[in-house]
Amino acid sequence: MGIDLDDWYACHNFSLAGKVSSVEVAALTVPPGTFPSVKTMDLDAFRRGQIGLGMLSPRFANRILTPLRVTGRIDAMGEIELAFERTRRLLAPRAPSRLSCMWLAEDSEAGRAHVRQMFSVIPRLYVVRVRISLDLAFKAAHTGWFDQYVQKPEYQFAANYWTGLSGPTGGWEFLLDGAIELLDPVDLEYIRTNRAPTS
Questions:
Q1: Cβ contact 111:147 at 8 Å
Q2: Which of 37-47 are b and which e, b meaning 16 or more Cβ less than 10 Å from the residue's Cβ?
Q3: Rounded Cα distance, 72 and 66, in Å
Q4: For 59-76, how does the pLDDT look when each residue is reduced to its tens digit (9 = 90+)?
């Protein structure tokens, strides 16, 4: 898993106890119906400005909410995420949503290299080893299909992603609704020491 050391909130959450959980898990800690689940929200309601606020993942906030609030519309990457969410609901309704899950990679040098490549634009990326401590939903998906969809938005690429087919390029990513914890206490100390200040 990769952590942006300049993302104060993510580092703070990890530094509290060396563990974090997905938005869907956090929502289970409050009375039912308090926060809407991204997995069941009316996706077209966003365009009408009807956004149920609650516990939002960084991906949902960055890809959907921020562009909508700043420009009044969802940008191209947000539209791609909504298309993938619609396809997930059709083909893999029990799978974690890309808009609310945590993202993991294989615990290998190839997996760590894949994380570094996917997040190469993050200057202070720190890759850590984690273990899954709670698994509500898990999905292995091949990033090559997402990349192909970005280049040419065809339904079949999204379908291949959610059905778990291996792609011609890219690597595997693992989507998790659940909780994870750091394996190495050295990583926890590194995050605590090197995270961005609160400003």
A1: no
A2: bbbebebeebe
A3: 9
A4: 777 777 778 878 888 889
